[in-house]
Specification:
By secondary structure, this protein is mainly beta. It folds into four domains: 148 residues, Cytochrome Bc1 Complex, Chain D, domain 2 (Orthogonal Bundle), CATH 1.10.760; 246 residues, no CATH class; 340 residues, TolB, C-terminal domain (Neuraminidase); 101 residues, Immunoglobulin-like (Sandwich). It is built from eight helices and 49 strands. The strands form nine sheets. It has a ten-stranded antiparallel sheet.
């Protein structure tokens, strides 16, 4: 029977593009079909593909810029994750035809998370853009022809899905009446930012003339709902320098450019509108000891000064909230200062009034008010207005308290006429004793109890996603209040919540928003009766002055933090040691070399908050810190430049941990110059490790006393199996047998009341878990058997695995184990390929007398960067015992006289 021309074309297409046809049934996606929206089952794929035109190309280009460019980049500029697919030169791993690409975008594959925010049309638009922009001329082998036969073979349906909707949750959220962040003060019509691109290390731009407030407190001045994001008049106060950076008006607030705002990398937010008053980057007050304004701070290699002024010069002490009013508190020399801002009017012209209460000083004080061209008028007593060096300045004599209001506006505004009808300056002290809470609503959310199928179950502590503030609910920190039934939870968008009802098996949680406006909090600690929050600019203590359950004073416990505009510069975690010192980890600058001494460091803050010290260096993106009882620390790090793969580091004071882009890196870039990690963690096993913690609850079953690692990248919890001998510290990890969380997990605490583990986290970037933007969970011991290794030892006699439950002796045989090893290469490049990959054959396996410890003899096994052991066994009761352990072998330990005993953790928790 002859073959028709159409059939021949179809067969030819199948032959040429066998690897490019719709994904094979065995493809492993990150998102299962039942988790997809209902409309995905009825999509008319052929209609969407056949409708491609110039308009869809332009829409796809816009989507690529907002959703894809950050990670993938373009042919001239690598993305922030250079291991992401380079469409213009590399083959697609899951097929290159439009439907295969659609499935990758929709369900996620490998390190590519599912793009849950994109509609079907947006996904096909960006596929069209990729094909036309990158494949057609640069990578034509990956350009699969779209023919009538191809279209006829696509899944049929009667819908193209929902219409794309504007997605700007960052601009719709009510952050409160102020928001601390790093801002560039700019007009809407200013030229584009100067941001360098190319290959790492990216060159430093000359930003000396850019008016940054690195620790900027942006305050809304006009009345109305919606918080600072909905305002039209604002001031920006810099609490590094105690200066009014600027006053501006206009709708929009800022442009929301930033990794934790609109998800964009290598950029920072700018103000939007028209600047009315602007002060340059100089101290806001003259040095009380000398009377001059010379900036004494650390100057980076790019010529910019960073960090706070010396404490004896000026020191930020915090801010008060009283309804919608914000009062900033600081000292200048030995004088305490309070200041607050109000919006005034001079006809149609906006005017800002700056009210100051200045205590008596032992020395004369001088404050820069505004450039000499601005319209400025003074009301009140105890100070005078003058002009010096091109500025209006406020003069306060020694020994004289001052109570004044400075009315300021753009040049030419008649401020003097407007102030004649004004009331006397407000007494700001009335706002420092507590006041009406702005966020008084109490929200409820259910506890969804998990199924007791295995040794550990997961209960979902539902977040109040529907809330009056349109909060994105992206949790970043947790600690319990006394009694254990309530906890403090922070979010990356600056909020702090008190959550009640946590230890009930089922029921309803009560949520109270008790603080807002903080700068990217990533750690919470309840310590000696107070709530401490670790932020990018400071450690804050939240004080409730009137016992109404809400924070009235945001006390700055420590603000030694050196802050730049770089997007990657997170301040991760917040922990204390037995002496009361606080610890957090400060990230480096991703693809750039360090600017400040704190880049890529572990930092200790004294118990009184007055001093900070660098404990260890060489970190890239250390997502939190664990303080061990013996004075050592555990800090994770992420694959990237000078970090060939993810690391779990057992940190000793003074150590350097590998990132040559961190500040103070040694001249010697060799591996021998760095402290080795406890283990290297392959990105396919855990893409992004977060904070570790010790299991310290006798009610948590066989894993009590274990070391646990939380995963931001895969939404899992791993048990860390440590091995210490002589001077060697090495280890391995194995995933707990619990469901994978639908979001990244970064912080956890054990609850003393119920003895269970509470974890939370978020998804932003560099995680596979994008189904939910945030989550909160209880991991509960059920009493069922745990079929998991709880120890692994690499010995000269073989690998020794100890399981939590007894094994079937007949199942312990060499073929039940697959041992793979490979090396990595540390360099200035991003990550590392696998080198010297080998599969080693086990030639003998035996079960110890305890019935739980297996010794596997593996000829050729020795020190290796990564070892992976897959096992397929049976428990003594016949249940399957399957899994994978991955770790590092620095050295082989000589056998001990007796093996098979229950392993002890390297550093047991103190009870």
């Amino acid at each position: 029977m002859p073959i028709s021309a159409t059939t021949l074309r179809v067969l030819l297409l199948l032959v040429l593009c066998a690897a490019c046809r719709p994904p094979r049934p065995h493809t492993t996606y990150l998102l299962d079909r039942p988790a997809l929206p209902e409309y995905e089952r009825t999509i008319d794929h052929a209609r969407l593909v056949s409708g491609w035109d110039d308009a869809s190309y332009r829409r796809g280009q816009a989507t690529y810029r907002t959703a894809c460019y950050t990670c993938h980049g373009d042919p001239d500029n690598p993305g922030s994750i250079p291991t992401s697919r380079r469409f213009w030169q590399e083959p697609f791993r899951n097929g290159a035809d439009p439907y295969a690409l659609y499935q990758t975008l929709t369900r996620g594959f490998g390190l590519m998370p599912p793009q849950v925010r994109l509609t079907p049309r947006e996904k096909y638009d960006v596929i069209h853009f990729l094909r036309e922009e990158y494949l057609r001329t640069r990578n034509p082998r990956q350009l699969v022809p779209v023919t009538e036969a191809y279209l006829a073979g696509l899944p049929t349906g009667d819908s193209i899905g929902p219409d794309p909707q504007p997605y700007r949750p960052w601009a719709e959220m009510d952050y409160g009446d102020f928001l601390i962040h790093t801002y560039e003060l700019a007009n809407s019509d200013d030229p584009p930012r100067r941001i360098s691109g190319g290959r790492s290390p990216l060159p430093n731009e000359d930003l000396r003339d850019v008016n940054f407030a690195y620790k900027g407190i942006a305050i809304r001045l006009d009345d109305g709902p919606g918080g600072v994001a909905a305002g039209t008049a604002f001031v920006l106060f810099d609490h590094d320098l105690m200066r009014l950076t600027g006053f501006w008006t206009g709708a929009g607030f800022i442009d929301y450019e930033g990794i934790l705002l609109n998800d964009r990398h290598n950029i920072y937010p700018r103000t939007v509108g028209t600047i009315r008053i602007e002060n340059p980057i100089t101290p806001g007050w003259a040095n009380p000891a000398t009377g001059d304004f010379a900036d004494p701070r650390f100057v980076a290699v790019d010529g910019r000064p960073f960090g706070p002024l010396p404490r004896q010069w000026a020191h930020y002490t915090g801010l008060y909230r009283h309804g919608s009013r914000v009062v900033i508190a600081y000292t200048v020399g030995d004088a305490a200062v309070l200041e607050s801002y109000d919006l005034q009017r001079g006809g149609d012209a906006p005017i800002v009034s700056r009210t100051l209460d200045i205590a008596s000083s032992s020395t004369p004080l001088t404050m820069r008010v505004a450039p000499a061209g601005a319209a400025v008028h003074l009301a009140g007593h105890g100070a005078t207005l003058a002009q010096e060096s091109g500025f209006h300045v406020l003069k306060v004599p020694a020994g004289t308290p001052a109570h004044v209001a400075l009315w300021m506006a753009a040049p030419g505004v008649d401020v003097e006429s407007a102030i004649r009808a004004a009331a006397p300056p407000l007494d700001l002290r009335q706002f420092t004793r507590g006041g009406p809470a702005r966020d008084s609503a109490v929200l409820s959310s259910p506890i969804v109890r998990g199924v007791d199928r295995d040794a550990y179950a997961v209960d979902v502590l539902t977040l109040p996603q529907e809330n009056p503030w349109k909060s994105r609910m992206r949790p970043t920190g947790i600690d319990f209040l006394p009694g254990g039934d309530a906890a403090i939870v922070s979010t990356i968008d600056g909020e702090v919540w008190r959550v009640e009802g946590l230890t009930q098996p089922q029921g309803v949680l009560q949520w109270h928003r008790i603080a807002t406006g903080l700068f990217e909090p990533l750690g919470v600690k309840y310590h000696q009766g107070a709530i401490y929050v670790g932020c990018r600019d400071q450690i804050v203590v939240l004080r409730d002055l009137d016992d109404d359950g809400h924070s009235d004073f945001y006390e700055s416990f420590n603000s030694d933090h050196q802050v730049t505009e770089h997007f990657h510069e997170f301040a991760m975690g917040l922990q204390t040691d037995a002496a009361g010192n606080f610890y957090y980890a400060k990230s480096a600058r991703h693809a750039r070399t360090a600017l400040i001494p704190q880049h890529g460091t572990l930092i200790r803050v004294s118990p009184d908050g007055r001093t900070s010290a660098i404990v260890a260096t060489g970190f890239r993106a250390a997502n939190g810190v664990l303080v061990n009882p013996d004075g050592s620390f555990i800090v994770t790090d992420q694959e990237g430049y000078w970090t060939p793969m993810n690391r779990i580091n057992w940190v000793e004071p003074g150590g350097f941990y590998g990132n040559m882009y961190g500040y103070g890196a040694p001249a010697d870039a060799s591996d021998q110059a760095m402290r080795p990690p406890l283990l290297w963690l392959d990105s396919k096993f855990d893409r992004s490790p977060a904070e570790l913690l010790w299991a310290d609850s006798r009610r948590w079953g066989p894993l009590d006393g274990s070391l646990l690692s939380l995963s931001y990248g895969t939404g899992r919890i791993f048990a860390v199996l440590t091995q210490f001998f002589d001077r060697t510290k090495q280890g391995a990890v194995v995933a707990l047998p619990i469901p994978q969380f639908p979001t990244g997990i970064i912080r956890g605490r054990f609850n003393e009341k119920d003895g269970q583990l509470y974890v939370l986290g978020l998804s932003a970037w560099a995680t596979n878990q994008m189904t939910q933007v945030g989550g909160f969970y209880r991991v509960r011991y059920t009493g069922r058997p745990l079929r998991l290794p709880i120890a692994m030892k690499a010995r000269t006699t073989g690998l020794e695995l100890t399981f939590a439950s007894s094994l079937a002796r007949a199942a312990v045989r060499p073929e039940a184990f697959t041992v793979s090893v490979w090396d990595l290469q540390r360099s200035s490049g991003y990550g590392s390929k696998r080198y010297n990959v080998r599969t080693l054959r086990a030639d003998r396996a035996s079960l110890g007398a305890d019935g739980r410890t297996v010794t596997v003899q593996v000829p050729g096994l020795g020190p290796t960067w990564v070892v992976e052991v897959a096992y397929d066994l049976r428990a003594a009761d016949g249940a399957a015992v399957e899994g994978v352990v991955q770790g590092t072998i620095h050295a082989l330990e000589a056998p001990t006289p007796a093996t098979g005993a229950t392993p002890e953790p390297a550093v047991p928790p103190q009870r």
